[in-house]
Amino acid sequence: MIELQHVSKAFGRTKAIDDLSLTVRQGEFIVLIGSSGCGKSTTLKMMNRLVEHDSGRILFEGQEIRGFKPQDIRRRMGYVIQSVGLFPHWTVERNIATVPQLLQWPGPRIRDRVTELLQLLDLDPALFRGRYPHQLSGGQQQRVGVARALAGDPEVLLMDEPFGALDALTRVALQRELARIHSASGKTIVLVTHDIDEALRLATRVVLLDHGRLVQSGTPLQILAHPANEFVTDFVGRSEIGIKLLGLQTVASRVRRNEPCEDAPVAETLTLREALSVFVTRQVERLAVVDGDGHAIGCLHLGDLVKLRE
Amino acid sequence: MLGALVVIAAAAAFGMAFVALAPNRLVQGTGIGLTDLMHGWRAVIVVPMLLLCIGIFMRPARRTNLMVALAGSLSLVALVWLAGDEAARLSAVAPKLSRVSLGGAFWVLLVVIWLAVVDALQRAGLGALWRVVVGAAIVALVVGLAVWGELDQLSLLKEYANRQEVFHTALLRHLQIVGATLLPTLLIGVPLGWALFRSERFAPAAFAVLNMIQTVPSIALFGLLIAPLALLAATVPWLGQLGVSGIGLAPAVIALTLYALLPIVRSTVAGLGQVPRSVIEAASGMGLTPRQIFWKVQAPIALPLLLSGIRITTVQAIGLTVVAALIGAGGLGSIMFQGLLSSALDLVLLGVLPVVAMAVMVDAVFGFMTLMVDRSH
Fold it and tell me: Chain B interface, mutation test: which of A87, A104, A135, most B Cβ atoms within 10 Å?
């Protein structure tokens, strides 16, 4: 869908991106991660031509992006930034309708689309449609920001540290919405962050950058289980790799089915990391597991947590 | 604060002349106090004024405030009527050339009561819109009194009657000059502000020049333009035929435009500076063209500040145009200066009062517009 081939970019004398090659496939959720100044935002902005690359090729749907008008390509890619940037003089409805209006959709279709998106982002349309951005909390503003980016039904969603300015609770809630939107719509998403937990939680593929170069690219499990070098190990948090690995998988993947078990049960949808916490706080080595309806399905043994399954 | 105003008003009402009777238009008259006029059924006027005083010292409830506003408005109209009525009475018995002019007590009461009305409206929670409405109602009633002929015997109206033609020409010319100033100011000022907003290199220098122009006294700037414009008109004949000359309209409009540029440019730059960077980034990231970003995003967000700039500029231009009369541009200033030279105070007032009224009206209209724009944000 988007392909970077040996792309380089310099700002003055400093090299921001150095011979970067990367392919974003249809339906992927790519998270670009690295410490500040590693070139992750620049990489994102080159994709919608907010930053022009110096050398190499960037292809969108097989065509060099310089062949498109910048406006055309941007209308096909939703764009969300950390500071949201809602238009302060427009209502929520008009903000969301920005791209559909540019694309000259008919009025009723725009209205329906706004309603649909507000519902998708868990904002009551009747309540929020007519509000102005300054009447919204930070989390609500970013929800509208995401809705606005999705409005024109773009092929790709580009997100530049979208949840960086939110408090921890709101951030987790929005991450959950985004994961849900991704799995429901199958939309291709490229997200930039410096938060490794966010990357592990959301990505189908994590791309780690350093000094404008690609260091490692792989699923969260691959990154954690087989870090390419010391830098990756340090970046993901050397002492917590095991714990984070547990965070990637659910109780359902390790439960011994149909084995009877005592004690107050835990849900199968819990991550193994959360389950470990329950083991420790209850001071037990076995936990009963139930499914969503509360039916017992088996038993989880503490010892089973250590076996890595890819 | 209000108490002090009441004391000032009372001192003026009892200590100064409300109207003055003079044997002719050039000499000072003998004053007649407000208390001397309050005979017969004219004393009814005391009622709203008393209500006003009581209201000011009562517990400030919303109802009291509304009462103060209403009583004050009535008092204002009543005072104008009283002055006109007294003038009519005096003229009937005094010699033919004698004049009845408005005295200090009249003006002080006018200002103080108006302040009380505005204050009461604000306390009652009624904003700028109501101030405009109440002001317009009072002005309409006073104009009604004038049209009805109730004020004909006041010296001010006599001066007007004597020079109706001159007055109307001057008023029209004044408006022309202000209009002719505003148009080029906007056409130059807004694009210039836009350019300076985008260029950090030239902005300081440009602002230095504009600031310098502002510090040149207006009369000097008018004077400075006489020589070059006269030369220009002499060397380029078709410009002269178009009306460009050392004195008259051309130097006036040029000088006024130069003055007007600073507030317009500054408010344009400030207005554009109010648009957050993130909003611009989001807009261009979503595929708005630079032109769309300007018209849909930057311009509307900058508008309230730009309007306040135009407001300042217009009020300033209305005032400065008075001075332009000195280089033969005409306008209400010519009436004022004529009055000053012949020491006819009423003639001065005939020139100045419309200028003040115009400035106040323009200010109110722009205030209202800014309010509307702000509300839609």
Answer: A87
Nearest residue in chain B measured CA to CA from A95: B283
Best probe of the B interface among A44, A94, A98, A150, by most B CBs < 10 A, is A98
**pLDDT 10s digits, A176-230:** 999 999 999 889 999 999 999 999 999 999 999 999 999 999 999 999 989 999 9
Taking the C-alpha atoms of residue A155 and residue A218, their distance in angstroms, rounded to an integer, is: 22
pTM value? 0.77
- Tell me whether residues B276 and A83 touch, CB distance under 8 A: yes
Classified as helix, coil or strand, B21 is strand
Q: Are A136 and A92 in contact (CB under 8 A)?
A: yes
> What are A142-188's pLDDT values in tens digits?
999 999 999 999 999 999 999 988 898 999 999 999 999 999 988 99
Round to whole Å and give the CA distance between B265 and B210: 9
Residue of chain B whose alpha carbon sits nearest to that of A78: B286
Residue of B nearest to A74 (CA): B287
> CA-CA distance, A105 to A85, in Å (whole number)?
23
C-alpha B180/C-alpha B260 separation (Å) is 12
Q: Which amino acid is at B314?
A: T
Closest Cα partner for A22 from A197, A255, A206?
A: A206
Q: A89, A90, A131, A153: best mutation site toward chain B, by most B Cβ within 10 Å?
A: A89
**CB environment A224-239: b (16+ within 10 A), e (fewer):** beebeeeebeebbeee
Contact A267, A300 (CB under 8 A): no
- ipTM for the predicted complex comes to 0.85
Spatial contact of A49 and A73, defined as CB atoms under 8 Å apart: yes
Contact A84 B282 (CB under 8 A): yes
Strand partners, B22: B99
Rounded (10°) angle between helices A107-120 and A138-150: 130
B-chain residues near A83 (CB < 8 A): 276, 278
CA distance A211 to A40: 9
- Find, in chain B, the residue whose alpha carbon is nearest to that of A72: B287
